[in-house]
Specification:
four-stranded mixed β-sheet, Rossmann fold, 206 residues, alpha/beta
């Protein structure tokens, strides 16, 4: 299996590569259109501000290429942290910025009840349906994952939401629709639980 981690200059690609290597999979970091086309699966990472990320994607000419692969070819794509947020139609982080538009969702400021704080940094349990394949082999509401974010995804279609966490209120932790899968937390930094989730994603037949 060929895994391509999309390189647009704002992703924590080294830790993702290390995670895939640990579970016995090779991943290439690339923005080359031909390599993205040839890959079996794509990973969209992301660290930083939404608007800057979309500018970087546009500067490399990646938006139409990724849109075709995700929506027409229906290649499996995994979004991680900011990469998940980029799936949305729009973000309201420092103004309004259009996203990739793959999901009917908006990125909103994270507003939490005390004593929770923003940014949300640290380990939180994630709740999900018992038959959710993305979390197969992991206990709902018990296994922890590592979060770092100040904005969160609001899904307009409840069917897209498959995992939530509690940080001063409910927060979207994982979404999926067809070939599109994404997590707000960092699976590559979530130790054994995150590695299991990556293996589940790789094993799933889309």
């Amino acid at each position: 299996m060929t895994i391509a981690i999309i390189d647009y200059g704002m992703g924590n690609v080294r830790s993702l590569m290390n995670a895939f290597e640990y579970i016995g999979e090779d991943a290439v970091v690339t923005a080359d259109f031909d390599e993205l086309e040839a890959a079996d699966r794509l990973v969209l990472p992301g660290v930083g501000a939404f608007g800057d990320a979309m500018k970087a994607i546009d500067a490399k000419g990646l938006k139409p290429v990724l849109g075709r692969l995700a929506l027409e070819v229906k290649k499996p794509v995994l979004g991680v942290c900011l990469g998940m947020q980029l799936f949305a139609r729009v973000s309201h982080e420092h103004g309004s910025h259009p996203g990739l538009g793959w999901l009917d969702a908006e990125i909103m400021p994270l507003k939490v009840a005390p004593p929770a704080k923003v940014p949300h940094v640290g380990w939180n349990a994630v709740s999900f349906a018992p038959d959710e394949w993305l979390f197969r082999g992991l206990p709902s509401g018990e296994s922890d994952y590592y979060f770092v974010h100040s904005f969160h995804m609001v899904c307009r279609d409840p069917a897209d939401l498959v995992g939530t966490t509690d940080h001063g209120g409910p927060v979207t932790a994982a979404v999926r629709r067809g070939n599109l899968t994404a997590t707000q937390f960092h699976p590559e930094k979530s130790q054994d639980n995150g590695l299991q989730l990556l293996q589940n994603w790789l094993a799933h037949e889309f």
